Amino acid sequence: MLNALVVASYGRHFLARDDRGTIWQVYGKGKRRDVAVGDEIVILPSGDMQAWVEDIQPRKNLVYRSDALKSKMFAANLDGVLLMLAISPPYSPELLGRTLTACKHAEVPLTILFNKVDILEGDSETLEAVEQELLEITLGEVPTHYISVTERPAETETLLRPLLEKKRTLILGQSGMGKSTLINLLIPGALAATNEISMALNAGKHTTTHTQMHFGEEGLELIDSPGFQAFGLHHLSESDLLNAFTDIRDEGNKCRFANCQHKREPDCAVKNGLEDGTLSPARYALYQMLKAELQEASQSY
Ligand SMILES: Nc1nc2c(ncn2[C@@H]2O[C@H](COP(=O)(O)OP(=O)(O)OP(=O)(O)O)[C@@H](O)[C@H]2O)c(=O)[nH]1
Ligand SMILES: [Mg+2]
Ligand SMILES: [Zn+2]
Fold first, then answer.
1. Which ligand 1 atom is nearest residue 181's CA?
2. In Å, what is the CA distance from 217 to each residue of 85, 175, 184, 190?
């Protein structure tokens, strides 16, 4: 038996690195198949660099998404999540809201990187609209940086290195936002290392269709993930959801009815808060959408 760290997930199998740096191709049975990148596991070698998952150690945290049919674990035991956005391809405010909610629920600090600002050079109107929208969704509680990985790499590196050193960070975002480009900037050779691993296992050419941890200098650990198009939150209960929206929760405590749905009830503090501008309409819309989803899901069981 060996202790190992899960460094890549291909869905059905995983790569795990033992204490001596040896990479094993790992498989799990039953519950032991629910392994995430960042998990500390115990493995039982079965020969030819292959091993079975014997045990998964308790997690500090886990970021995952889930819809009615299945859940997808992004990564575990994280120090932070970086969400990458851009104007092209266009970011989805809804996916931002969902990521924000998932990170809050998992108690993992989120940072937003709005990438490709070079595209918006000379278009301050659009940039201001983006800044405004991000502020409205995050309430200004999420550190947000405006960067250009390809056009201002040195600046990007100077900004991010101190924020990311000695930390394990999951990089999330829709496809094409620049996640892998950022990883290659901060960890030169990350791709080469990936190719090496793939070739050693005869798994063919590397693409960002799997989740993979990359190791850089100064304890930098960056987890690349495939771009997502959906972010289901079926694993949250209604009270989990409310705890991720403390602005609405706190205002809602002042409603006349304890079970106020904040829709058409009289003396609804949430509705009043929306009218006088203390609450954000974007967050209210997101909250109601997520709540309706959870109610629908619980009815179909
Ligand atoms: N203009 C501009 N293009 C960029 C910038 N950063 C990345 N790109 C380009 O955006 C494209 C997508 O970058 P990737 O790093 O592959 O995106 P990704 O988020 O890893 O995408 P998936 O792996 O599909 O999830 C590439 O052509 C990059 O060169 C930037 O700062 N400005
Ligand atoms: Mg990628
Ligand atoms: Zn109300």
1. 15
2. 25, 26, 13, 11
Task: Give residue ranges with CB within 6 A of ligand 1.
Answer: 115-116, 118-119, 148-151, 173, 175-181, 208, 226-227
| Confidence label for 50 from pLDDT (cuts 50, 70 and 90) | very high
Centre of ligand 2 from the C-alpha of residue 32, in Å: 27
CA of 264 to the centre of ligand 3 (A): 8
Q: What percent of the chain has pLDDT over 70?
A: 93
Round to whole Å and give the CA distance between 293 and 135.
Answer: 25
Q: How far is the CA of 238 from the centre of ligand 3 (A)?
A: 15
Q: How far is CA 70 from CA 52, 58, 60, 253, in A?
A: 23, 22, 22, 34
Does the pLDDT value for residue 193 go beyond 70?
A: no
Average pLDDT over residues 50-74: 94
Per CATH, domain 62-224 is 3.40.50.720: no
**Residue 72 reports pLDDT greater than 70:** yes
Provide the residue type at 19 as one letter: D
Residue nearest to ligand 1 atom 11, measured at CA: 176
N-term to C-term CA, the chain: 40
Q: What is the DSSP letter of 92?
A: P
CATH T-level assignment (fold) for domain 238-299: Ribonucleotide Reductase Protein R1; domain 1 (1.10.40)
Residue ranges of the chain assigned to CATH 2.40.50.140? 2-56
Ligand 1, residues 72, 91, 150: which to mutate, most atoms within 8 A of Cβ?
150
Q: Is 42 exposed, middle or buried (0-12, 13-18, 19+ CB in 10 A)?
A: middle
**208, pLDDT greater than 80:** no
Please compute the mean of the pLDDT values over residues 57-61 and round it to a whole number.
98
Task: Evaluate if residue 172 carries a pLDDT over 50.
Answer: yes
| Type of residue found at 89 | P
Query: What span, in angstroms and rounded, lies between the C-alpha atoms of 134 and 143?
Result: 10
